[in-house]
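User: Sequence recovery, please. Input:
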């Protein structure tokens, strides 16, 4: 089980890994990419994920959007630049916060985008502040999904939407005899990966009802496979480096995540869904 501080430390300790392997300076994304006939490269896949989610969410110019678990701000910048909507991104990682603010100045989006160091289960924003909340691969870090759902309900305006793109445990999968999901969680500082139905129960109890759901597991498969290739390329250099350096907790084992997430996906242990919840 990980604390909020543990999760912040994970992202602080591995930011340089994402810069190297996840093309942060070009894509500003720490999520899986979306591959389809329009996608020709990994950077394009990362950007395509934002495009697909924007199509599903239907953000309008006058909307106020919260990116809950915003990473280095790529999605917030994308929404603002494509729609003109005002976007606030929040993260608990000090290094992500600094990186996002630096990029905001470079992109000259200060008038549309701002960032805060905030826990998405307990924010400082007023009730009914946002038309939409986006959570891309961020709720998997929340130990208490109900606390997130309760806070999202409080922050959304009546009729507002919560857009979730995340990993979900496959309830029909064979037993995880090699503990692949648990090992993956330990590499990324994730909470237990839940099923879609378990999410629905928590969120509906708090007044957020599923409106749209889409299984895009097939569209993220190539990103998962690419991460496995990175593991194959990086495991020996990582072992050698760790042997001679005092590497931090998460940075030491981060490379192993490429193996565990891919093997778990190949065994059908997890799926990737996009779900839109609406506040009634």
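Assistant: Recovered sequence (280 residues):
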């Amino acid at each position: 089980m990980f604390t909020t501080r543990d999760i912040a430390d994970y992202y602080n300790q591995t930011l340089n890994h994402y810069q190297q392997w996840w093309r942060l300076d070009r894509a500003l994304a720490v999520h899986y990419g979306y591959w389809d006939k329009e996608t020709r490269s990994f950077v394009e896949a990362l950007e395509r994920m934002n495009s697909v989610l924007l199509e599903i969410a239907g953000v309008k110019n006058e909307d106020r959007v919260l990116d809950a678990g915003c990473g280095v701000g790529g999605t917030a910048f994308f929404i603002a630049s494509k729609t003109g909507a005002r976007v606030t991104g929040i993260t608990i990682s000090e290094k992500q916060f600094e990186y996002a603010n630096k990029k905001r100045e470079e992109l000259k989006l200060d008038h549309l985008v701002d960032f805060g160091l905030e826990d998405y289960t307990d924010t400082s924003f007023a009730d009914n502040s946002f038309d939409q909340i986006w959570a891309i691969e961020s709720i998997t870090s929340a130990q208490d999904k109900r606390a997130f759902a309760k806070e999202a309900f409080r922050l959304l305006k009546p009729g507002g939407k919560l857009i979730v793109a995340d990993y979900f445990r496959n309830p029909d999968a064979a037993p995880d005899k090699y503990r692949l999901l648990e090992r993956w969680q330990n590499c990324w500082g994730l909470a237990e990966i839940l099923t879609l139905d378990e999410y629905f129960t928590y969120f509906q109890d708090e007044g957020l009802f599923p409106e749209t759901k889409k299984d895009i597991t097939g569209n993220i498969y190539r990103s998962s496979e690419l991460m496995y290739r990175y593991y194959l390329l990086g495991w020996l250099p990582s072992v050698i480096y760790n042997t001679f350096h005092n590497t931090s907790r998460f940075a030491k084992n981060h490379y192993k995540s490429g193996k565990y997430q891919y093997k778990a996906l190949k065994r059908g242990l997890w799926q990737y869904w996009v779900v839109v919840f609406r506040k009634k």
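The radius of gyration is 18 Å.
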